[in-house]
Amino acid sequence: MSGCVFVGIDVGTGGVRALAVTQTGDVLGRASVAWKRETSSHQSDGHEQSPGVWWDAVCGACLALMADLREHNVPGDSLCGAAIDGTSGTIVCLDKSNEPVRLAIMYNDGRAQAEAEELTAHAPEFCHKLGYRFAASYALAKILWLQRHESEILDATARILHQADYVAAQLTGNFTVTDYSNALKTGYDLVEDRWPDWFDMLPGVLGRLPQVVAPGTPIGAVCLAASAKTGLPEGLPLIAGATDGTAAFLASGARRAGDYNATMGTTLVFKGISPRICRHPQGLIYSHKLPGGQWLPGASSNVGGEWIPTLFPKADPAEMDQAAEPRLPSSCVAYPLVRQGERFPFLSSAAQGFSVPEPADAAERYAACLQGTALVERLGYEVLDATAQTAAGDVYSTGGGSGSDVWMQCRADVTGRVFHRPACPESAFGSAVLAAAGTTHGDVWKAIQEMVRIDRSFEPNPQRTAAYQDLFLRFREELGRRGYV
Which residues of the chain carry a pLDDT beneath 70? Predict the structure, then answer.
């Protein structure tokens, strides 16, 4: 083997994944460490987690990755860079010694709804410029919640970092930097590339926020102490990462305006490509950006793959796919939401899942949920296309749900779009792309072109797409009857 190898680390919803990838996209090694059940705290709408758990899992995953590389005779000095992605909107408060002063507030913590509405009302011109409304999932809403409910915690806080920033800081010792993908939900002005002036409603917060750089920017190197704990070479360049959703986009292979990356994980995350920022009249869409002047208009639905472990906790997904395939299209119109509330492709705090009529058996229910998720996805593309003024682009699918051929074909048939599955549809691969962009490749889009490969494409079946048209109309009618749209 010759050439550079890049490490991508994904600090995700279920644990940490680490990949080692060559400059042409070959995966040479992989490792993962799952969260332990007792590491999270759930109270009402809250979700908190110990930052120490992230670092321990990163250390374990990196040690396992390096062992895997040694087993395959990949020399440590071939590693040329590393980058990290993390969940979007997760924050950790650190004291002057860079130790956490409380558990981290996670991306899906919902306690800051009132604060989100207050932020939107306080900065309407800013929200219009950026094209979004603040939500409870946004980091800035969580910071305002801390100010209102735990002021003593905020008083003891010297720095506020995002999840990926905290792990990067443990590796380098640099606790002063973030990237503008992670900073979006903290209120960073992506148009003017600065923290905004209207943070006056959060006195003292601006001084606690990090410096912001573009994803793919060198931010330090692995220090001696971190090298001993992770096995990564001391001095390995660390490159600014992104949110897990943005990293998944980079792993997807999407490159043309009008195309989409859809990450089918616990939730369904959409990201498109546009030469301009996109503004939805209700603020349902937010736009990330990447170096090179491209914007990524997108949003997240609460419907994704969460229904599988919730409704079918003991089932084998592959076996259920096989049983469900002959039932597609299903006459049952399902909206497989397993918690209350939806944020995209419509906004409704009262939204609840349904199936009309109720499925006759487990295989029919599974088929209806596969189909129902695809119906949500189709509605999402309609909203995104109307906002971005694009039409019928291809979809590059990442996340765990992309591994199901049955589901991929169903999604292609329901939406009438060509779906592509990259050879490695993981956020950690996208972080490796950023590591390459910040070292040898010099450009994010060049790194995508040279590293991402398509494993398989799924063409829509015209007959099934016609059948799904009627089911989609029924689906919209059911949503409207309930007052969701």
Answer: 1-2, 37-44
Query: Using H for helix, E for strand and C for coil, what is the string for the chain?
Result: CCCCEEEEEEECCCEEEEEEEECCCCEEEEEEEECCHHHEEEECCEEEECHHHHHHHHHHHHHHHHHHHHHCCCCHHHEEEEEEEECCCCEEEECCCCCECCCEECCCCCCCHHHHHHHHHHCHHHHHHHCCCCCCCCHHHHHHHHHHHCHHHHHCCCEEEEHHHHHHHHHHCCCCEEECCCCHHHCCECCCCECCCCHHHCCCCHHHCCEEECCCCEEEECCHHHHHHHCCCCCCEEEEEEEHHHHHHHHHCCCCCCCEEEEECCCEEEEECECCCCCCCCCCCEEEEECCCEEEEEEEECCCCCHHHHHCCCCCHHHHHHHHHHHCCCCCEEECCCCCCECCCCCECCCCCEEECCCCCHHHHHHHHHHHHHHHHHHHHHHHHHHHCCCCCCEEEECHHHHCHHHHHHHHHHHCCCEEEECCCCHHHHHHHHHHHCCCCCCHHHHHHHHCCEEEEECCCHHHHHHHHHHHHHHHHHHHHCCCC
Instruction: Count other Cβ atoms within 10 Å, centred on residue 442.
Output: 11
Three-class HEC string of 85-138 = EECCCCEEEECCCCCECCCEECCCCCCCHHHHHHHHHHCHHHHHHHCCCCCCCC
Helix axes 405-415, 317-324, angle to 10 degrees: 50
Cα distance from N-terminal residue to C-terminal residue, the chain: 55
Tokens of residue 286, six digits? 């937010």
Q: Are strands 268-272 and 91-94 parallel, antiparallel or unpaired?
A: unpaired
Give the C-alpha distances (Å, rounded to integers) separating 115 from 121, 181, 476.
10, 22, 31
* CA–CA distance, 242 with 290 (Å, rounded to integer): 10
The tens digit of pLDDT for each residue in 75-107 reads: 999 999 999 999 999 999 999 999 999 999 999
- Confirm if 300 and 203 have CB atoms less than 8 A apart: no
Backbone angles phi, psi at 257, to 5 degrees: -60, 130
Single-letter amino acid code for the residue at 205 = V
pTM across the whole model: 0.89
CA distance 393 to 376: 17
- Residue 81: phi, psi to the nearest 5? 180, 160
What CA–CA distance (Å, rounded) separates 232 from 8? 12
Centroid of chain to Cα 368: 25
As given in the structure block, the two tokens for residue 284 are: 């349902």
Task: Quote the pLDDT of residue 255.
Answer: 86
Dihedral of CA atoms 35, 451, 90, 185 in degrees, nearest 10, equals -160
> Can you give the pLDDT at residue 465?
96
